[in-house]
Amino acid sequence: MKQLDMLAELPEKMWYVPCMNKQKFNSSILDNCNASSRLCFLFEFLPFVIYHRLVVACINNMGMKPWKSTGSRCIFHTVTILTYKDNTHRVLVAICDNKERTHRDFPYSLEIQINVTKPREIDTRTTSKIQELICQNITALTQGFFSCKRHSHVGYRCTLEPFGRNLESHIIKEEEMTEPEYECSKCSQVHIVNVDSIRRFWKGKTDPMDTKFEKEDKENNPEPNTSNAKIGPYTSSKDKLSQMLFQEMFQEDENIRLLTLMSSPVLQKSITVKGVYRCNEIAVVTSEMVWVSNDRGMMNFDDWTPVKLILSDTEGNTLAQITHPRCYLMGFHTMSKNRDLIYIADNKNIIKLSNDMKTKTTVVTKTDWMPCSVFCSKSSGDVLVGMFDNVPGQNYTCDGLSGSIKGKITRYDQFGLHIQTVEYDHAGQRLFVCPHFITENINGDVIVSERCRLVVTDQAGKYRFSYRGPPLGSILLPLGICTDALSNILVCDGRTNTVQMIDKDGKFLSFLLTEKTPGITCPGCLSYDVNTNFLWVGARDRNTVSVHKYISDQRNMNDGAETDSESVSSAKFDNILVKKL
């Protein structure tokens, strides 16, 4: 847990577990302190666990320790004050909710403020070093969260006061501070902000007119050669912190540009899965193995076959099976980025089965709501659970229809800590009745298949759009869904027996697969293999899985051959025996 920055070891043989801390911060402990401006990292989406892990990382990795004031450690629920290694400067780390303030597009912030005991003065060479270390840790901690990594900005509070003194202080983003003076009209009383007095604490100079330290910094840290650097969408920002937070996206964009849609899909293989009646959901493990859930055969209530999950190779042979999952003709199992199987068990717990088939872990324990679908984010490792609740006598309205059932999407981190619940749109209207399938797009959007539409929200849970079918087409009956490397959204339509493709903003692109496509009958579930860019399709009327290629990868010299990038990863599965789990 210490290595994962989930807890910190303190002196006197004590451990700090941040998620258990509920103490409230009292700003009076800073009465005898000189404080810097507040450096703010703005986020559209910020799980509370990021703040916890940042505090722990400061203790474990940066040599800081909790500051003691009047004999008590200054560790609070949303604020922590740590002593820097010089034992003079102290670092205040806070998480703030700005949803009711001016920057509603970035409603959350991690804020840093340096303070020293009076009459000492703050050495901005030290604050610059602390800034660099904090930025590196924030970048590392938010890599798994798309909205954290791609949508963060850097700014400063408009007043020079110790944390907690002025509740009205507002954030000025770095790109807004283009002149020596900034007129802040966000506060109730308009006031002028001296920009350099705010920035100077984080620029390595003890005085705005002092160039000595700037010269020393350039001599010790020469500017990198940027003659061959690629220009990205954020290079206009003068603040290098923003550039550090966004630099990883450019390589990903370069890879995406090398992928193109083919004129028509090509069938790669068709698999008849033994021991399966019909395919309810599929999850690709490697290019040679897939988890398939068995449909009970609901057309004959007297002849249900036991629900089970089967690990099948591409010859249809059973490598492993689980006989107690829960099935509602929905997406009740998924794969983690480490190829662990995550599924809904018959006791309503969310279970993780390790990729070596040896360890089972309860990720999420059952709640009063019924879990009906599950998805594991490949970027963050978060587990998203679709749930519904049937309350007889109650009347809930969703999408213009009323009934006794209500739904929601609940997000947990990989350790089972609740992060987020998405249930309503910005107008307070219900988004879901019963989420059947869940997936995630490259841009962080969450796509939910339910009833007669797809519902798309961003990672912060804000409603973006709904997709109800192609223009002039029939009403959608959405089943299995997935996204591809081009950010396209793919959905099985139970009315037309097609796989439809829309772009990330909901625009209809094509009927990618139809009943005329080789290997396709009644597509019901999908799984996209990110290593080969192949689409796996499970049939809802029989026990077949077909594999199709529809994206051309220009990085491969021999574009017609299957990628063998998983040979090492697949090796661990070679000796799996048929087993009942």
Word description of this protein:
- It is elongated, with a radius of gyration of 27 Å.
- 12% of the residues lie in helices and 36% in strands.
- A hairpin with a 5-residue loop joins strand 30 and strand 31.
- Residues 1-6, 205-254, 297-305 and 557-580 have low confidence and may be disordered.
- The chain folds into two domains: 8-221 and 233-247, TATA-Binding Protein (2-Layer Sandwich), CATH 3.30.310; 256-569, TolB, C-terminal domain (Neuraminidase, 6 Propeller), CATH 2.120.10.30.
- The protein is mainly beta.
Task: Give me a quick take on this structure.
Helices cover 12% and strands 36% of the residues.
CATH superfamily of the largest domain: TolB, C-terminal domain
Residue share in helices?
10-25%
Which residues form runs of ≥5 with pLDDT under 50?
1-6, 205-254, 297-305, 557-580
CATH topology of the largest domain: Neuraminidase
Please tell me how large the radius of gyration is.
Answer: 27 Å
> Which geometry do the CA atoms define?
elongated
Q: Alpha-carbon distance between the termini?
A: 28 Å
Strand content: 35-45%
CATH architecture of the largest domain: 6 Propeller
Mind describing the biggest β-sheet? 8 strands, antiparallel
Content-based structural category: mainly beta
CATH class of the largest domain: Mainly Beta
Our count of helices gives 8
Mean pLDDT: 79
Structurally, the number of domains stands at: 2
